[in-house]
């Protein structure tokens, strides 16, 4: 069955967008940072380091809103002040876990999207951007796009890369289309290292959607996403090397990325790599 794609070109370009779907492995893409305990020093300390434990609670909770559980727990252990400030976000993590259990039917509970949504919304109300994104996904899948976008906007404003990516993709899928806003949020998520956002941004640059067409910049983001493990970006990087779009033609690099995409299950890449092997061009 043909899937609906986010972006397309009337000239039947081979560079197509990835359908809107769940940003799996979001937490896995975020490396756990190590927090060192802030020591309390007297005002006469020669280093005169700032006391971060004195951050206002509202500022601290905004900073920590996109944290995954390991980072949130580490931050909570810095000092009693931070532990108190981040209590609501720790509660949100419990609700987020419950929501995922209901959404996927895990942990001894049956699959129940309504209960999952309730848990995600409670987590979102406590400030977790991860819960905002998961609640937004359920709304999106149910066709409630305005509710989904509202949650993505909140998560994006708090610096959540998945929220920024989904917000950008949403602007490419809702009427009226807003390509400029899409590119703005996709770029922010891309700079933050979100590989699917990097791929979607590359497509916008390649096709001139919401931004002036720039093949060199598009290739840069294709390669970043490909190096980050995004299979469709690997395939498109191979095509760019094959046809010399945005960079110099290189059969060696084209073969390398085509094989990597094929090895990871990309159907078209498997077909084209197989043809190359059969014809002796590899």
UniProtKB/TrEMBL annotation:
Biased composition (Low complexity): 33-45
Region listing for Disordered, in residue ranges: 20-48
Sequence ranges assigned to domain F-box in this UniProt record: 52-87
Entries under Pfam families matching the protein: F-box (PF00646), Sel1 (PF08238)
InterPro entries: F-box-like_dom_sf, F-box_dom, F-box_motif, Sel1-like, TPR-like_helical_dom_sf
Coiled coil: none
SMART domains in the cross-refs: SEL1
Domain of life: Eukaryota
Alphabetized PANTHER family for the sequence: OS04G0476000 PROTEIN (PTHR45088:SF1), OSJNBA0022H21.17 PROTEIN (PTHR45088)
Name of this chain's protein: F-box domain-containing protein
Species of provenance: Gossypium raimondii
Source lineage: Eukaryota, Viridiplantae, Streptophyta, Embryophyta, Tracheophyta
């Amino acid at each position: 069955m043909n899937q609906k794609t986010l972006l397309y070109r009337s000239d039947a370009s081979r560079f197509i967008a990835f359908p809107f779907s769940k940003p799996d492995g979001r937490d896995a893409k975020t490396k756990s940072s190590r927090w060192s305990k802030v020591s309390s020093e007297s005002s006469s300390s020669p280093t005169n380091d700032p006391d971060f434990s004195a951050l206002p609670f509202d500022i601290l909770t905004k900073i920590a809103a996109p944290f995954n559980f390991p980072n949130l727990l580490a931050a909570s252990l810095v000092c009693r002040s931070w532990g108190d400030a981040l209590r609501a976000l720790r509660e949100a993590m419990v609700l987020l876990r419950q929501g995922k259990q209901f959404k996927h039917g895990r942990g001894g509970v049956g699959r129940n999207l309504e209960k999952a949504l309730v848990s995600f919304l409670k987590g979102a109300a406590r400030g977790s951007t991860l819960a905002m994104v998961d609640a937004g996904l359920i709304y999106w899948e149910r066709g409630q796009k305005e509710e989904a976008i509202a949650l993505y906007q909140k998560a994006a404003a708090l610096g959540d890369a998945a929220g920024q990516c989904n917000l950008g993709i949403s602007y490419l899928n809702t009427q009226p289309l807003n390509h400029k806003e899409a590119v703005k949020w996709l770029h922010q998520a891309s700079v933050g290292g979100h590989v699917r956002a990097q791929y979607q941004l590359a497509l916008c640059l390649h096709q001139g959607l919401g931004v002036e067409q720039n093949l060199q910049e598009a290739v840069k983001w294709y390669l970043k996403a490909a190096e980050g493990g995004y299979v469709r970006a690997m395939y498109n990087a191979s095509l760019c090397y094959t046809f010399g779009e945005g960079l110099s033609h290189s059969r060696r690099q084209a073969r390398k990325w085509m094989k990597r995409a094929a090895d990871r299950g990309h159907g078209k890449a498997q077909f084209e790599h197989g043809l190359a092997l059969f014809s002796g061009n590899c």
